[in-house]
Specification:
The chain is mainly α. The chain has one domain. The chain is 69% helix and 4% strand. It has 17 helices and three strands. A three-stranded antiparallel beta sheet has the order 1-2-3. β1 and β2 form a beta hairpin. α2 runs antiparallel to α4. The longest helix is centred in the C-terminal third of the chain and has 34 residues.
């Protein structure tokens, strides 16, 4: 029998925010792709379909008690790892990156779903192995392995941005479980010492992106082109913007990847400081709603799941916007709910669906 308390505990604000930002994203995608080749000018229609698929999957996630994810956590993780391996063997290569797995008419990025799989697996592990005092380095070996396996598989594609998100998720969740300060200091110190050696593992184009971040004017028509054109687009929008569908940087095709990585630049040019600020405020409200779910979770697994998801969404928002304004290197990172891409949109809907699920079933823990 259906429990009416599920509806009374449904977070309509979070749900409406999710839909509103997604629809706004479709409008900006439409603006960014008009005047392009026919297959690009119809991308907004594809995004509408992905939105509908995302909604269907979100409601499926909501209907199933999130504790089912706890029981299936390691199975989900195993499927994710197998899928990531299949991507490296059979994956579709686009722009030099082997990130897409094609099944029938659908192509999707497994790395997007892998983030949620890792969050679920880590939440299950930390919930199963509760430590009365504080976690030390030896207690973090298994969760580190859980994180590093997909980290290296995704980095191999290569997808440096998503790999970085994996590390951020791991750090956020070990902070949630109360790590020993001395162990945390050692972990941070090792990370800082390891950073210089990472330079030798980067590909040439990744090194150039980092150098370009420091001085994009050194190669304005090469590696610095993306950052410079993005800054020009954002700055030219001024306070109120040039008007919806009237952005010159995107219309004249000066701005690259404008419907994916640089969609925030298109929005800022057309809707100005006001439009960009409204979007940031909407994201801020969404994050605050997620934090509220963390704070009021009545079981450890739900709280850990929420922490991982909120951290993932927050990281994407900060890194993407920071990338477009030139304070972070360009790593090919979508803006949640706004950027074109079915894998990203559906994964975000799944993540928010899990948050809504935890919020709805709070009363079951409360009694």
């Amino acid at each position: 029998m259906f429990d009416r308390r599920l509806i009374s505990n449904f977070d309509w604000v979070l749900f409406i925010l999710t839909i509103s930002i997604s629809i706004w994203g479709i409008v900006i995608i439409y603006s960014a792709t008009q005047g392009k080749a026919e297959h690009l000018s119809k991308l907004y229609i594809t995004q509408i379909y992905w939105l509908l698929y995302g909604l269907l999957i979100m409601f499926s996630v909501i209907l199933i008690d999130y504790h089912t994810l706890q029981r299936s956590a390691y199975f989900i993780y195993a499927i994710v790892i197998i899928a990531l391996i299949l991507v490296l063997i059979f994956g579709r290569v686009i722009s030099g990156a082997q990130r897409w797995l094609t099944i029938g008419p659908l192509s999707f990025q497994v790395s997007e779903l892998a983030k949620v799989g890792v969050i679920i697996a880590l939440a299950r592990y930390f919930d199963d192995r509760r430590i009365i005092k504080r976690y030390r380095l030896r207690d973090l070996f298994v969760p580190a392995v859980i994180t590093m396996i997909p980290f290296f598989l995704i980095a191999k594609e290569p997808d440096l941005g998503t790999s970085l998100i994996m590390v951020i998720i791991f750090i956020s969740m070990i902070l949630m479980v109360n790590i020993d300060p001395r162990s945390l200091a050692i972990l941070i110190g090792c990370g800082i010492l390891f950073l210089p050696t990472m330079w030798y593992f980067l590909k040439d184009y990744q090194r150039e992106r980092l150098l370009t971040l420091i001085n994009p004017e050194a190669d304005p028509l090469g590696m610095g082109y993306h950052i410079l054109q993005s800054k020009i687009a954002i700055g030219s929008g001024e306070f109120l913007g040039k008007g919806l569908f009237a952005g010159t940087q995107s219309r004249l095709n000066f701005l690259p990847e404008k419907h994916t990585d640089f969609i925030f630049s298109v929005l800022a040019e057309e809707m100005g400081f006001v439009g960009a600020s409204i979007l940031i405020v909407l994201y801020l409200i969404l994050i605050i709603k997620g934090i509220d779910i963390i704070y009021h979770s009545r079981d450890r697994f739900g709280a850990l799941l929420s922490v991982g998801i909120v951290c993932m969404l927050t990281s994407y928002i900060i890194l993407n916007i920071g990338m477009t304004i030139g304070i972070f290197p360009i790593v090919g990172m979508p803006l949640p709910l706004m950027s074109y891409g079915g894998s990203s949109l559906v994964t975000t809907f799944i993540a928010i669906g899990i948050l809504l699920n935890i919020r709805m079933r709070r009363f079951k823990i409360e009694g």
